[in-house]
Amino acid sequence: MYIGDVGSRGLHHLVWEVVDNSIDEAMAGYCKKIIVTILEQAGVRIEDDGRGIPVDINKKEGKSGLELVMTVLHAGGKFDKDTYKVSGGLHGVGVSVVNALSKKCNVIIKRDGKITTQSYQYGKAITEVKEIGETGETGTAVTFYPDETIFNEIKYSFDIIDERMRELAYLNSGISIKLID
């Protein structure tokens, strides 16, 4: 299993997978701010000001880069070197596993002057990738609600997440990580 187990450790690993994508953006020099919000009804939102997942249609697959990253394991390898760099396979494995293990998930991308979104249930797209506005900002926001039929208990520990975010902030100078409960 990609997340280790279906207990607390695996549940928190879902958060780490998405946050690690933002950290990759920071390490590449494209992200300075990450916000992790623990939501009601066992949801989590991770937002960053990185480049945003590509939403262009992948010519080989005939689907948006966003949909590929969110629904296909190892999709990160489908991006050429000029489109989007993938460190450690996280975009393409981690976030697709988070999506697959969530009863619902939504992604909002700010990239190339546009705000784009797509929603998912149980790992499958339930909406098309659609443009919902314009912006001068960049970034990715992933909101997910883990599937309670998979996990033993869906209860996040603020202390566990806080400790991990503090470690990441310490190890990655120049990045601001904010945790909201």
TrEMBL record:
Domain Histidine kinase/HSP90-like ATPase: 6-150
Main enzyme class: isomerase
Keyword annotations from UniProtKB, A to Z: ATP-binding, DNA-binding, Isomerase, Nucleotide-binding, Topoisomerase
GO biological process: DNA topological change
Keyword Cell inner membrane carried by entry: no
Record EC number: 5.6.2.2
Catalytic function, reaction form: ATP-dependent breakage, passage and rejoining of double-stranded DNA
Keyword Secreted among record annotations: no
SMART domains, alphabetized: HATPase_c, TOP2c
Gene Ontology molecular functions: ATP binding; DNA binding; DNA topoisomerase type II (double strand cut, ATP-hydrolyzing) activity
Gene3D superfamilies listed in its UniProt record: Histidine kinase-like ATPase, C-terminal domain
UniProt family annotation: Belongs to the type II topoisomerase GyrB family.
Protein name: DNA topoisomerase (ATP-hydrolyzing)
Organism: marine metagenome
